[in-house]
Known about the structure:
The protein is mainly alpha-helical. Helices cover 91% and strands 0% of the residues. The protein has helices at residues 2-10, 12-20, 23-54, 56-64. The longest helix is centred in the middle third of the chain and has 32 residues, at 23-54.
Amino acid sequence: MDQIAEAAGQNEALRKAAAVNSLDKFQLVFRQALESLFIERMELNEVLFTNYMSKPDMQELASSG
Length: 65
């Protein structure tokens, strides 16, 4: 959730929408953006998961911290 909140906070389009819309209208824009952020994060995590599980060198790198 923190990553999603951070991404939303850095989204310039959301900041502009918040500045020029009522709360009700902004919530519509925000919900759409939030859904997109969740989908994007899911896709990135899927790629990371697949790479980690299929590449021993990545497992080694991740575990060596």
